[in-house]
Amino acid sequence: MNYKSNKFAAVFFIVLLFAVGCNKNVNVVDEDNKSMGDLLIPESFDFQTSNEVIIDFQDNLKAGDTARYKIYLHSSQTQPDTIYYITEDGTEETDYVNSIDPLNSLIATKVSMDGTFSLIVNIPDYIGELYVIKNTNGIFTSEVIQVTGKSAFYGGGTKSSREDPVDVLYGVNGSGDLFTVNPETGEMVVIKQLISGSYTCAMDDINRIMYTVGRDNNLYKYDIDTEEIELVGYLGMGGPRLDFNEADGLLYFSTSNKLYSIDASNANVLTIQTISGLHSTSGGDIIYSPEGVLYMCTFSGLYKVIFNQEEATAVRISADNLPFSPTSMTIDSKGELWLGDNKKRLIIMDVVTGGWEYRFDQYDRHINDLTTLPLDESGIPQTDTDGDGIIDFYDEYPDDGNKAYATFTPSVYGVGTLAFEDNWPTQGDYDFNDLVVNYQFITISNADDKVVELQCNYTVKHIGASYNNGFGFELPFSADLIESVTGFNLTEGIINIDGKGLETDQTNPVIIVCDNVNANAYQELNVVVSFTNPVDPDVVGTPPFNPFIFVNQDRGKEVHMSNYSPTSLVNAAFFGTGDDTSDPNTNRYYKTSNNLPWAIQISYEFKYPKESVPVNHGYHKFNSWAESGGGVFKDWYTDVTGYRDNSKLNIDGN
Q: Considering only CA atoms, which of 208, 160, 550, 532 is closest in space to residue 372?
């Protein structure tokens, strides 16, 4: 890629709350009080926090098969976390739990007819694993693959125990409604009135029986095929959580911090266990995953229950209390977790990743519990609405024949951050908050694996400088490939653009997102790049490409990341002046004498320092990371215990 002198390594997604794949055991002295100017930084270091990885897929599908692959950022490691919460009697408590990264998320999808292809993704430099979920005609398999350097290999996953492709969600509520929800459309249909209102339900999908505990404390079963309800027996208690475990054929019922196993044939309670580690014991639900893992949600978040002989411990997965109060939970055959809340909404969450979003909002009745009935594989419709050769079941864009799937940078749920100092060529205070821009890119490809559209979503998150700067980015391919650019905001009359929306007099295509960041503060700008013809993904490259600012309306005064080359319109007279040691003859750009940058990119919503606080004062491991040339503490920006001084950071983004 010709805009960067060293080998390009763009960003992906910085993750909150866990440590992964980083070499923290190296004996490195972390000198928090060292000034930025005193750091001894290797000349070759360019402050990259991400890794461009090529995933080689060698799956060898059977003749006639088609598969959709979803690739997730992934880690199974945990780190201690301190939780503050209010108990039911109103007192504040402090607790200590293990948390995993809640922001792991989907980064790419791909549909293939032979299972042999490559994908290029950008991931945080410290991530050593990816999680691949494969869908072949509704049969879901998964595999954790290792990242080695700049490569990863996938050879096919392990089959899930739940092989049915398309699901129907069943639900109940305290008013006695039994209803279904179509997970694709959100349509809710009340199909029956229960004998007693209920807060719980669970599905034996092999025998097509749904169980429910009524408000009268009786256990009932509902036959999906005959639609008949039968009393099983008197349970003698009520509560919010119920699931059926296919591994042992038992029902599991939970209320408060208790977990009971129940004989589904007669409502007899077999065992009882106390679950430790819950921050709230109110509300929620339980669900066994196809792999046999018990998940529990309460009003304080989502937990994974770990069984160790006679003990059961709830380990909170969600980083904080969820911003909604879950009343129900189920896992569909895609491995996605559905939650209902007390405001009659449906939320979807990735069990693998912890990412979530509101999916359907808002129903006219309560959703007190949910369960899943997978449908037959033979029920997969072969409809190809847009005629692109990919059936709607796999197609991310079933109504658009030019689009089939997407790759997300940094992820489907997350944003990355670009942070700039604008005093160039003079050193600034290194708080990296003169301009803070969040980004998310969506690279859309067609059925032939060619890129047809690039969606570039930016938000001007913070302006900590008095200068009125502009912001843009350079792309690494010919402008002839671009048909049009839309979504930018130019108001100052200092940028000349052609009919496509590209800046004129540039060697490579340059898009000025806005020429006045102050006029766009806290606003989202959605730039769309459309291509004349579909383009090979290796030609397009990987976001965020070559972002830059120009300072205080001076178009020639560009500030790029370390060792990223300027555009054709830079005023080269600035190079080598002030504290800058750029030398175009040696392809050295935007570095001080001790190799400090004026801009950094973070694959996560960066908690930028407060005004005039150097970044190494807010992040304790920054010095060691920089002086090691990125060799240690690659996750310096995450919320691992001991990594941050939150009093010196804008944690809330203000």
A: 208
Q: Is residue 215 part of a domain?
A: yes
Burial 331-340 (b: 16+ CB within 10 A, else e): bbbbbbbbbb
**151/176 same-domain check:** no
Asked if residue 414 belongs to a domain, the reply is: yes
Q: Are residues 197 and 150 in the same domain?
A: no
Lowest mean pLDDT across 193-207, 272-286, 313-327, 612-626: 313-327
Q: CA separation (Å) from 566 to 99, 299, 474, 595?
A: 42, 51, 9, 17
Q: In which residue are the tokens 């909170």 written?
A: 316
**Which residue, of 354, 374, 394, is where some domain finishes?**
374
State the pLDDT confidence band at 378, using cuts at 50, 70 and 90. Answer: very low
Domain-terminating residue out of 323, 352, 374: 374
Structure-block tokens of residue 270: 């077999």
**pLDDT digit string (tens) for 10-19?**
333 223 223 3
The reply to whether 433 falls in a domain is: yes
Q: Which residues contact 652 (CB under 8 A, 6 or more apart)?
A: none
pLDDT more than 90, % of the chain? 50
Q: For the residues of 302-313, what is the DSSP string, one character each? A: EEEEEEETTEEE
Identify whether residues 195 and 100 lie together within a single domain: no
Going by their DSSP bridges, the two strands 167-172 and 369-374 should be labelled as antiparallel
Q: Once rounded to an integer, what is the mean pLDDT over residues 598-613?
A: 93
* Domain count across the chain: 3
Q: Which domain holds residue 109?
A: 52-157
Judged against a pLDDT cut of 60, whether residue 81 lies above it is answered with no
576, 624: one domain? yes
Cα–Cα dist 294/303, whole Å: 9
pLDDT computed for residue 272 by the predictor: 84
Q: Which residue has the tokens 């290796």?
A: 538
pTM: 0.67
pLDDT of amino acid 225: 78
Q: Are residues 541 and 606 in the same domain?
A: yes
- Half-sphere exposure of 434 toward its Cβ, with a 13 Å CA cutoff? 27
**pLDDT tens digits, 189-238:** 888 889 999 999 999 987 889 999 999 999 999 998 788 899 999 998 88
CATH number for 309: 2.120.10.80
Tokens of 582: 């750029």
Residue 26 lies in a domain: no
Distance CA 47, CA 562 (A): 7
What's the rounded Cα separation, in Å, for the pair 375 and 379?
A: 7
Buried b (16+ CB within 10 A) or exposed e, 395-418: bbbbebbbbbbbbbbbbbbbbbbb
Task: Band the pLDDT of 483: cuts 50, 70, 90.
Answer: very high
In whole angstroms, give the CA distance from residue 642 to residue 555. Answer: 41
